[in-house]
Amino acid sequence: MLVLGIETSCDETGIALYSSDGGLLSHTLYSQIETHAEFGGVVPELASRDHVRKTLPLISEALANAGVKRGQIEGVAYTSGPGLVGALLVGAAVGRSLAWALGVPALAVHHMEGHLLAPMLEEDAPAFPFIALLVSGGHTQLVEVSGVGQYRLLGESLDDAAGEAFDKTAKMLGLPYPGGPELARLAGLGDSGHFRFPRPMTDRPGLDFSFSGLKTFALNTKYKVLPDGHKLDEQQIKQVKADIARAFEDAVVDTLVIKCRRAIKESGCKRLVLAGGVSANKRLRERLWDTLKKEGGQAYYPRPEFCTDNGAMIAYAGWRRLKAGQSEPLRFNAQPRWKLSDLPTA
Ligand code: KG4
Ligand code: ZN
């Protein structure tokens, strides 16, 4: 079965083709970074308009790159939620109409299921069951995964998602959008031992998270070290910011690692999948890899380009469900809020 995948939930248009025989045949991505950079964050209306401009040309490009004709597509999968409603509607409208025009089944994919299954695009794919740490701009969740659609939420963030905390702290340090990767880069120049930030909610039982306090901690640290009228030169200011970035990153990574270790101990499952935009973070990947090794288990991640939003994960998740016989009726829907646990088993 050959499936076309369409991702338009936020600020990236991602298109991919996945087939039963050939695996991932092609994938294309257009990032809207330049569109949103001058505003310091995603402007939803501009995101929708960019998806309108890019979705069809990128589909043509993905087909050409794979050497596939439109008529060979046997199913269309599109992200239906969660995400920005206008952005989602573009992919859903294109995907559902294209499936109707081609006379093939369509499938509405849950964006976080796409992230969660993304490591299965790699050669060393995890087997079920596993524990998944989903860390994106909108979600931080620990999920027990027994199969496609068999998801039990173990814990989640009570306030900001990890990626959101990265983005807000980056903005506070004067870094450009998109903040997460910029902050990680700056943290690489920082000294780990200079400031010590708290590890929120690790001193009590449970697997929930809270990250909003860390950005306030970063802000207060900045004001304490760089008060009005301070005498530091440009290089010294840059070093202070790098040290704050490092302390923030260390705190987020440590907290995530502590909770993952706890989830593994409590569940007895020693396979851990790390997915979502923040899983591109090098220090998080290294720490989880070492932790799982020490525990006698293994960590699995997508390659960095499939950590952040992309079409490949949507084509793959759609393919898993379409080949199991699932499809959508002749209508489409955007689901800005949609719980993973509401998905059917495939
Ligand atoms: O999965 P994703 O592309 O979009 C959502 O579904 O939200 O995740 C984007 C998030 C952003 O908050 C971004 O700052 C964060 O992932 N991110 C990172 C890194 N790369 C992306 N955070 C920390 N370190 C990174 N290297
Ligand atoms: Zn995402």
What would you note in describing this structure?
It is built from ten helices and ten strands. It has helices at 33-37, 44-66, 85-102, 111-117, 162-172, 179-187, 212-225, 234-267, 282-294, 311-323, and strands at residues 2-7, 12-19, 23-31, 75-81, 106-110, 130-135, 140-147, 150-156, 271-275, 298-300. α8 (234-267) runs parallel beside α9 (282-294). The longest helix is centred in the last third of the chain and has 34 residues, at 234-267. The mean pLDDT is 97.
Keywords:
346 residues, alpha/beta, 10 helices, binds zinc ion
The helix/strand order is EEEHHEHEHEEEHHHHEHEH
The total strand number stands at 10
Strand content: 15-25%
Q: Which ligands accompany this protein?
A: 5'-O-[(R)-(carboxyoxy)(hydroxy)phosphoryl]adenosine, zinc ion
Residue runs with pLDDT of under 50 for 5 or more positions: none
Distance between the termini: 16 Å
What is the overall number of helices?
A: 10
